[in-house]
Amino acid sequence: MKLVQKIRSLLVPKVRPFGTEPTRAEKGRYGEALAARFCRLELGYRIIARNWRFRHDEIDLICRDGAVLVFIEVRTRAEGARIPGVQSVDSRKKAKLRRACRNYLYALRDPAPHFRFDIIDITLPKKGAGKIRHFTNIPLFSKHFSIPNCPK
Known about the structure:
Blueprint: H1 2-11, H2 24-43, E1 46-54, E2 57-65, E3 68-78, H3 91-107, E4 114-124, E5 131-135
Parallel strand pairs: 3-4
Antiparallel strand pairs: 1-2, 2-3, 4-5
């Protein structure tokens, strides 16, 4: 297993830290790059899309975990933030994510029978690398949600 991880780490590009005074967008891009690298190397996911957009809605990462389609929201916060990233996904944000995920699923020719929603919370200290926490299977859809059969 170590050999596979070593090969993966050689194939996945390194994440470069941002400058001395990063903007909010730079921190966000850095956090998403850390999350993508974490998904590939540590979790073994296959990344299908990054920053997938439909109108005003966006999904940060769409991955495959075996047969399961995983929608991932990345939340990057400074160390010492009042509200942790996972708690910053409120009902309004969940509604936008639900709409984006639904539109992605409707656009697929062969929809995945199993899908879930995860949150990756990244805490950025003043110096050093970010701390990554992964929260799996966050409730986003009702238990009765299903993808309608669309004519092909």
